[in-house]
Amino acid sequence: MTPLTTAGPMAAVGSSRPAAVLAPSPAAPSALASVLRMHQTVGNRAVARMFGAATSPPASVAGRHEPPPVRRASRVVQRHTSPEHLVLGTMTPDRLATIADAHDLLRTFGKSKVDDANVQVAVHALSYERAKVRTWQQQPPTSVDDQRAWQTRLTEIDNPSGGPPVIATYGEMNTLADYFGSLDDLKAVSNTTMRQVLQTIREEYYNWLGTQLKELMQYDYIEKDAYIPDPRSRNVIKVKQRFYKREGGTEYDSPATPGLKDQEFADTQSGLGVALKQPAEALVSHITEQAGADLAVRNDPGTQARGSGGAWGAIARNACHFAPQNWFAWKKYHVDAVVHAHDAHAVRKRLETEKGLDALLRDKLKQEAADAENEAWLAESFGGHYLQDAFASGHLINKTMIMQWFLEYASTFKFVGPSGSAMARMGQMTEARQPGLATTGLYAKSADRPARGPQAASEQATAAEEFETAGLKSSVQGHALEVLRWWRAQPSRPSMTVMDFWKLQTKRQLPVSFVHTKALEATLDNLVSAGLVARNTGLGIRATSYDLRESPHLSKKVGLTDTSSYDPAKTLTLGSYHEFMNNAMIQSGAGALHDYFCKKGLDVKDDKGNTYKVYGDSNLLAQGAGTGVRFLGEAVEMARTSVQDALDTGNEPKPSTEKIMARFPSQARLPADFDGQPVPNAGTMLPLLGFQRALRPQMNQVWENWGHWFVARLPTRHARAGLVEPGQVSPHSGEEF
User: Fold this and answer.
1) How many angstroms separate the CA atoms of 174 and 383, rounded?
2) Which of 390, 371, 334 is nearest to 645 (CA)?
3) What is the mean pLDDT of residues 35-60?
């Protein structure tokens, strides 16, 4: 972005020193030490996960650890990569590529390239952007009319609680799908909550920009002789010390400074940061600020009324951030944006062509056009998050399918995992039993399909519609359905949840008279095969018992069970699905592969034949990312241009939705190894689904390796606890239908 020359909030930003960072909130020393130790051991995400987790120890049952009852949510706070989404929605493709290439240049050639023009351009762009975001954070605009002075697209978030709307940039809107499952969820929260979320994102972005600057500027140094005490004697020894150049100046600072003037860029591990007086306070401030924003969303009355669960629920349902669902999640919002853009154009056309409109009507129409345009940009910028995820290497996997595979693996996981009873209930969710969950039909980009998956399913009006949209199925029919209906109608007590064969056969209340033992056996076999009932074999047929696998969160509305329209099989299946989506361990199995591919990167190909390397969350500017970042930035720009064209012309926008989707990576190259394991046919470029299936044989070993790491760092109870409360996964959790 070029420096501003117009008057306004940013008129003097380019050369001025950014304002000092806000002071971190104080915390008790003992708590600080504890959190700091945990952070050093397990990382930011795990520390945040521990906030509010269950504290009672698990009981041991038959050699397996059973989880304690989950009475409240485990407060899992995802480490959002908001800064990367924000910068993608803010900077031009060329500028993004220049910054990535500057990193590569210095990583490869070191100090000799510090004066390269691309490096200097990157430093200037990052410095300017960083100063701008600090000014923006401290003096935010109050109207979208300020966007010319800020030289960025502004949007209004209409707050239902009244008061002035919240102003967010296009780039900031790109980040919000990590906090909200949908644009409607976003619009439902209060003014105060939205400002807290945005200010947290701005602080993250400011710090991220500083990190990029530090990485570029640390190469600009001089070496001087220095004399330091020898720890092995009383003498001094001569050493070489590096002195780093200040930002925007010619002075070289002490070796403890990276050349940046603000305190928060401490790097205590490498020693390249400004000495931070209270690093533990800064760490706790950062973690709790992030958690505070997530909690604010979750506890907001608007979120509570919608039953969307806030950020925690959005994370549990975020399969729509992964291919192929993210393709159609973006398409849905882009199509909505074009519709709103056409509405705005039509109203403005009327204002141009119809003469004699009275002033009152003209003002009303102008406001209608402005509102429609704002809605267009809200939809496009929020949906842009999914477009950006379509280029992230860790998001090219099919998350739900990976969770299904991990569920199969977890039954043999020797370290820690869901309880035996939970595994039994979730057993219905394997790929063999529920092939529709992974929405593999969406891999055909040309398919005219509605958005599907957990997020789309949770937005449905009824539990039955959620069942359909999630891709679930039930094969239980006839006598088996009648037996289930009777069984679910029994009083909720253990003797009616687990029954032996004799008890089932002799119950006169059964709707079907099973004269022959074989008839009842066949019916129960059907229920066992469907995963709705477990068979516990004893000595002799009468010793065999059957366990009804029902979620403990079901409401057990017995009155419904007497009606022929009630489908207990679908009810139990939906309950199993909610438990599957809610389980932290199952979610983490997919998270392990997400993190692996984000860090390692993938060589990909789009439908146009372009090949390049992409990385994922927190690795946007990794080695060799320049070309991929440029292609990603161009796709973001194409989407914006398309909406603007619809606003300007009222016609089918150019570029078209299909042309933009053709830029999404649809193939990936098999790596030489997968977490140290050789990969057959390495180097082959495969469609994404084929790529994922080709790596399936190695995944169990990857999870085994990850299990060693996971168990060494987290207490068992944290792995077993649910990710979120059942009601946060879906408003229909626990419903009978």
Assistant:
1) 7
2) 334
3) 36
Bond into 279 cis (ω within 30): no
Residue 583: strand pairing partners: 722
Under 8 Å between Cβ of 311 and 178? yes
* C-alpha dist (Å) from residue 70 to 58, 580, 582, 719: 11, 15, 11, 12
pLDDT tens-digit readout, 395-439:
999 999 999 999 988 877 655 556 667 788 888 899 999 999 999
**How far is Cα 317 from Cα 454, in angstroms, rounded to an integer?**
5
With 0-12 / 13-18 / 19 or more C-beta atoms within 10 angstroms meaning exposed / middle / buried, residue 414 is exposed
The amino acid that residue 512 corresponds to is V
Residue ranges of domains in the chain: 82-318, 478-550
Nearest to 221 by CA among 265, 272, 275: 272
Please tell me the predicted confidence (pLDDT) of residue 446.
77
CATH topology assigned to domain 478-550: Arc Repressor Mutant, subunit A (1.10.10)
In contact, 153 and 381? CB cutoff 8 Å = yes
Summarize pLDDT for 212-261 with one digit per residue, the tens: 988 887 766 667 777 767 656 667 777 776 666 655 555 555 444 344 44
CB 391 within 8 A of CB 631: yes
- Mean pLDDT on 25-43: 36
Compute the Cα dihedral for 271, 275, 278, 284 and give only its sign.
negative
Who's near 665: CB < 8 A, 6+ residues apart?
Answer: 323, 390, 391, 396, 604, 605, 606, 614, 688
Greater model confidence, 352 or 111: 352
User: Token pair for residue 170?
Assistant: 């296009």
| Secondary structure letter of residue 247 according to DSSP | T
Burial group, residue 474, by CB count within 10 angstroms (0-12, 13-18, 19+):
buried
Beta bridge partners of 536: 545
Strands of the sheet containing 685-687, edge to edge, are: 611-614, 602-606, 665-669, 685-687
Unique residue bearing structure tokens 């990276």: 258
- Candidates 90, 95, 153; CA nearest to 629 is 95
